[in-house]
Write a structure and sequence with these properties.
7 helices, five-stranded mixed barrel, OB fold (Dihydrolipoamide Acetyltransferase, E2P)
Length: 272
């Protein structure tokens, strides 16, 4: 997709995005959802205008949308800066992204793919995921003429791939990798006598989970202080700065960076 020159368009005619869904049956909910999704994608980079439906045709689902206040192409240095063209490029970038191998969290963030984009893409392709013979075609129109280089299409098979990848990417983005907590109370569920290692130690951080979590120490001297400062570690609540590391959406390991305080469990319960 290349940038077009102004000489290739009629500056007096409006630019619109025409979307044609080839298929058998489209429900009202599907049509409503996909139109809202187009509008939401547009709103990601244009906040002073809205999209309106400029045309609907019978047969296959064919909708043309344009900006409520039509862009005057002559006022833009490049046609690609017009909102409706940016919407096309934004959608194509997202579709192409999901056609590739399942992305990592970092790659999704790097490409400005967030959970809302994933949801919008799912809604946009949903109507053609059920029928193997269906497809989506979309074009930037200048009046009744397709603008050069601003057209694309994909099949039902592509739509299913895009939808599945969008779902998986949303799951990846929902997953936490780590969380930093300061002055967080915790208690030991299990602690090994060997003060030179944290292997086998387990703690409970009640604000995160009621299940025992593995624990590591930024410096092993932190464990030495814990063990040497109390005769029975299980009678105390400790307060520390920590990093909670996740596997999927569940906490897995606590890294204790700094021990700030220790309080008798009885006193803590009375004051807490």
């Amino acid at each position: 997709m290349g940038t077009i020159d102004k000489s290739e368009v009629n500056l007096e005619k409006p630019l619109s995005l025409k979307i044609r869904y080839e298929g058998e049956i489209f429900t009202v909910n599907e049509v409503s959802d996909l139109l809202k999704a187009y509008n939401d994608q547009y709103s990601r980079f244009i906040d002073d205008n809205v999209l309106v439906i400029s045309d609907v045709k019978k047969g296959s689902l064919e909708v043309a949308i344009q900006e409520l206040v039509p862009a005057v192409a002559a006022s833009y240095p490049l046609i690609a800066e017009v909102g409706i063209v940016r919407l096309f490029e934004n959608l194509k970038t997202a579709f192409d992204f999901f056609k590739e191998a399942l992305p990592t969290r970092d790659k999704a963030i790097e490409n400005n793919i967030n959970k809302n984009v994933c949801t919008n893409v799912e809604k946009i392709v949903q109507p053609v995921t059920k029928d193997n013979s269906s497809s989506i075609n979309y074009f930037v129109m200048n009046g009744d003429v397709i603008v050069n280089n601003y057209q694309d299409s994909f099949s039902s098979q592509d739509a299913n791939l895009i939808s599945n990848r969008a779902k998986e990417t949303k799951k990846i983005l929902n997953e936490k990798s780590s969380e930093t907590l300061e002055n967080e109370p915790f208690r030991f569920h299990q602690i090994r006598k060997n003060i030179k290692t944290g292997t086998g130690d387990r703690v409970i951080v009640e604000s995160i989970s009621d299940k025992p979590l593995k624990v590591r120490y930024d410096d092993i001297s932190i464990k030495e202080d814990i063990v040497e400062s109390s005769e029975n570690t299980f009678n105390f609540i400790f307060v520390a700065d920590m990093i909670v590391q996740y596997k999927g959406d569940k906490p897995d390991t606590v890294l204790i960076n700094e021990l700030n305080d220790q309080i008798s469990a009885d006193d803590f319960n009375l004051n807490g």
